[in-house]
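Question: Hello, beginner here. Any chance you could explain the protein record under this note? Any guidance would be welcome.
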Amino acid sequence: MKIFLLEDDETLAFGIKTYLTNNGYEVIVSPSLEEAKKVFDYNFNLIILDVNLPDGTGFDFLKIFNIESTPILFLTVNNSEEDIVKGLNVSDGYITKPFKLPILKAKIESILRRVDRKDEKLNYKGLVLDEKNYRCLIDGENINLTLKEYEVLRLLLKNRGNTLTREKILEIVWDNKGDFVDDNTLSATVKRLRKKLESYDYVIETVRGIGYRFVRD
């Protein structure tokens, strides 16, 4: 399980990372929103956000990255009713500082269990990605995709409306698995995807000089 931790307190961040790593989690830490922009990708199982940061808030992080499906846990020193309601409206839970690390671990496990019990499907206007079986269906019709085509479509669909850079897509779908990839691999994969989706009004837009964006006509 891969966890992204946005926390500016170095001592606390070190303690959380060490404890969770010793319990089998992979933890990537960022101390600020600016740093998060450099290291965050959409390939995490859980995101832990400090509310108060040196250059913004955990709520700003959600706006910047437009997080929709990844579970969120807030860390906060605030315990007012307003803060609690605001956090719960956009997350899966919160923990008030100070807290004990076993309590944090139990909270994480509870959230991940709830996520695992959900139907593992991505749905968008007739397009369904069955994440258990790596199947793509449009209006109930099976669309035959290769694994890489499926992974690219899944990434774009999860971030629909947002532009993902070519570098970020290559990093997530290919590079982090150690696969060989040349400059034309992504272009060829997107070309095949477009051909398979073109009759269904789904569009993968090219944002010239940047990357791709998933939309629907």
Summary: The two ends are 36 Å apart (CA to CA).
